[in-house]
Amino acid sequence: MSLTVAMIATLALAASAESPRDASGWLDWSNTLYSRGDYRGALDAAGHAREIDRTDAWASHAWARALAAVDPDSARLAMPGLLDPATVLALPIEERARLNAALGYLCLELGLEPLAALHFNQVPAATGSHGEAQAGLAILAVRRGHSRQALVHFEAVRASGKLEPPLAELERETRFQVALHEFTTARDLRDANAASRSYATLDELRPSHPATLRGRADLAQLRGDAPARERALRELLAVDRSAPGAAGQLVDTLLELRRPSEALRVARDLAPERLAFDPVLQAIERNWVAHVDAAIAWRHRNGDAGRGRLDVPQLQFAWIGSNQRWGRFRIAIDAQAPDAGSVAAGQPYGSSPSLDVATGSQHDDGGAILAQWAPRAGLAIELGHTPPSFAVASVLGALRFRVESPEGPISFGLERQPVTDSLLSLAGATDPVTGHEWGGAVSNRAYVEGSLGGEDLNIYGNFSSAIIAGQRVEENTQWRAGVGFWRRAASGQGWRARLGGRLTAMSYAENLSHFTIGHGGYFSPSRFLSIGPAFDISGHRESASFQVEGGLSWQELREDSSAYFPDASVLQAANGNRRYPGSSRDGIGARLTATVEWRVSDRAVAGVRLEGVRGEDFDEIRLQVYTRRWDSAITRPAREPPLAVLPAVFQQLN
Fold first, then answer.
1. Which of 33, 30, 29, 87 is CA-nearest to residue 63?
2. Cα torsion through 644, 647, 648, 654, rounded to 10
3. Contact 125/134 with Cβ under 8 angstroms?
4. CA atoms of 24 and 29, how far apart (whole Å)
């Protein structure tokens, strides 16, 4: 049996060898080998077909196609002169159309785009290959970046029949790119209507594409819709976490929405390079990361000797925390021991117009507490109490608002704060004659202040009105207004100097600056005017920051005469209706403050602040040594300019 099979196979091979292929046979064999991936065999077979019949255009196509697979460079050189035009024109119209379409795709594959376009354009519209040729022209237009022309060819393909899935996807992508270009142009021209129309197409074609999500964010920005922009940017980052610029844009949007804690979290997670160089974000980080402040301070005020003199050693501590939902919190404790020495005999004090004997040392001590809450940016609520151990203790509080605008911030609010000019106004005192307590003046103030301009030139102003009252102290009213400016004078690597000026005017209805019952022991001129130049130098060097500020002023004031006992008519009459004389004076005032802050680690700083003031009514010196420590590492712990641990009542959260 096996012998029979072998003989049959031998005879078949012999018969095959005796029947040589014609051109058509070699062409069919070339196509078969090409479909099998035997490109060299296909090239050899197509070469035999060409040798047998030089006028067979399809044999030349098969040869060029196989050559392109074996040696693309040689194929590119061979394509321009591959066929005799007369031979192609001799073909029937349908066959000629099919050939041109096939040659066009071959040229497209080889990168011979002009030749490919020539072949595709030679396919008549009425032929069955027209749609195929139009598809090739569409692909060619996409490659050349002619998206709109590509869409024209795609429409022609649709007219000839249904698009194949790969071609349909290419058409979809082309339409998307055209719409994206239209959107970008409209966005740059700030044409919201045109941008909306283009975006609708983007959203229809690729709703979750990064470019669509970025377009959604850009359109929201164009419309001024910050919440919608935030949503789009978050969706974009969910799809592409490393989308260029998206994290920074989300940070800007959250800052615009006045959500600093979220802006900080996004910057830390997605844009650390932004946090490394953005002083605004660094300030937010210093404020929002939980930290503690601690300071040792001393204040000396020299007013009316023996009564207006005041020494206040202090130990200050504050904890600052934050919560994304609830905002920022601050609890401050200020332990202080004010001392004013003694009052000499013969001085008016308490219910006596002239003390018979000197008083003992006037001093007190205790701890003040203040709780502050900023539920959102621009709003702060405060509630506190002066030390309960003081002779006269008071409840404190404030409601503060801050509005940001392109021109500059505006702050306004209501506050109830202690008057710290003397021991009498700060802590109250005990009358050595009757044992009654009086003093403890507090200012119930409404204020508004603002500024406009930038670092090169900044103009600021403020106005306030207050009612001042205390225990057995006559009620008083006060108004105060100020205006000033800062202008950059010079700057260099790591430092900046500014020059400016300020005008301050102030008035009180009553002069209650003395120390008998009914008076509060605080500076209360009927007219006060101060005007003069100021300077400010701030900067940083390595791990430290510094600020030196000061100024001179010409001061002019007038104090009215006042009754010894303004709110006790019986006592006033019993003492002959005596009055303190009024006075007017003027002179030069000066102020100088220096603060230096050092970075101890990436979680802690230490600093010192020294301030001196000289005026027509009092001289004052303040010294504070402080430290600040965060719960976690901070990008730039040292603030510029440095920020000392100010008295609790002056530290604002917004």
1. 30
2. -50
3. no
4. 9
How does DSSP classify residue 239?
Answer: H
Of 46, 651, 246, nearest to 231 by C-alpha is: 246
Instruction: Outline where 189-240 has alpha helix (H).
Output: 192-205, 210-223, 226-239
What is the mean pLDDT of the segment spanning 300-326?
86
Domain range list for the chain: 289-446+457-650
For 209, the token pair is 């594409």
Q: 81: which DSSP letter? A: G
- Three-class SS state of 271: coil
Cα–Cα–Cα angle for 223, 225, 228, rounded to 5 degrees: 120
Question: Distance of alpha carbon 540 from its chain centroid, rounded?
Answer: 22
Q: Cα–Cα distance between 58 and 563 in angstroms, integer?
A: 123
Nearest to 296 by CA among 310, 320, 319, 313: 313
Distances in whole angstroms, Cα of residue 516 to Cα of each of 19, 194, 424, 520, 566: 139, 77, 10, 8, 9
Q: In whole angstroms, how far apart are CA 638 and each of 121, 267, 461, 478?
A: 71, 19, 29, 38
Q: Is the pLDDT confidence value at 11 over 60?
A: no
Q: Is the peptide bond before 210 cis (omega within 30 degrees of 0)?
A: no
Instruction: Provide the token pair at 166.
Output: 């790969």
User: Which residues, other chains included, contact 500 with Cβ-Cβ below 8 Å and sequence gap of 6+?
Assistant: 484, 485, 486, 487, 533, 534, 535, 536, 551
Beta bridge partners of 596: 546, 608
Dist. CA 531–CA 502, nearest whole Å: 6
441-450: pLDDT as tens digits:
999 999 999 9
Does the model's pTM come out above 0.90? Answer: no
SS (H, E, C) 120-182: HHCCCCCCCCHHHHHHHHHHHHHHCCCHHHHHHHHHHHHHHCCCCHHHHHHHHHHHHHHHHHH
**Considering just the CA atoms, what is the radius of gyration of the chain in Å?**
44
CA distance 195 to 80: 46
- In this structure, what token pair is assigned to residue 92? 């029937």
pLDDT of residue 170: 93
What is each CA distance from 474 to 400, 417, 452, 515, in whole angstroms? 27, 17, 38, 12
Q: Are 630 and 293 in contact (CB under 8 A)?
A: no
Query: Contact 629/296 with Cβ under 8 angstroms?
Result: no
Question: What's the residue count for the chain?
Answer: 654
pLDDT of 650 above 60:
no
Query: Cα–Cα distance between 273 and 409 in angstroms, integer?
Result: 28
Each residue of 60-110: pLDDT tens digit?
A: 999 999 999 999 999 999 999 899 888 888 899 999 999 999 999 999 999
Q: Which whole-number Å values give the CA distances from 573 to 173, 353, 563, 578, in the listed order?
A: 98, 12, 10, 8
* Reported CATH class of domain 289-446+457-650: mainly beta
What number of H helices and E strands is found in the chain?
A: 20, 21
d(CA 366, CA 393): 10
* 65-98 exposure pattern, b = at least 16 Cβ within 10 A, e = fewer: bbbbbeeeeebbebbeebbeeeebeeeeeeebbb
